[in-house]
């Protein structure tokens, strides 16, 4: 299975936000609630990641509850890719 780099996932996050007239900050420490990245946006990102990888990932993981920053999203997607 191919994997997406953190930069590729970051670009995808940016595209989700840009479609809503928002901008993704460059800092991984940026809080999702502060930039307006909601759970629906995460779902859209998850679908894009799955499409790009041509596989289903287990997004039911308990780690979803602890995602608060851009870096958390990138770490979470990294971990899911490693687990697949």
UniProtKB/TrEMBL annotation:
Gene3D superfamilies, alphabetized: ACP-like
One Pfam family linked to the record: PP-binding
Taxonomy, superkingdom: Bacteria
Domain Carrier: 3-81
Species: Dermacoccus barathri
InterPro entries for the chain: ACP-like_sf (IPR036736), PP-bd_ACP (IPR009081)
Listed name of the protein: Carrier domain-containing protein
SUPFAM superfamilies in alphabetical order: ACP-like
């Amino acid at each position: 299975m191919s994997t997406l780099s953190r930069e590729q996932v970051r670009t995808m996050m940016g595209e989700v936000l840009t479609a809503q007239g928002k901008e993704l900050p460059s800092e991984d420490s940026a809080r999702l609630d502060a930039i307006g990245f909601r759970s629906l946006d995460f779902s859209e990102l998850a679908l894009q990641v799955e499409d790009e990888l041509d596989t289903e990932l287990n997004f039911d993981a308990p780690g979803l509850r602890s995602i608060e920053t851009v870096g958390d999203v990138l770490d979470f997607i990294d971990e899911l890719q490693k687990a697949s």
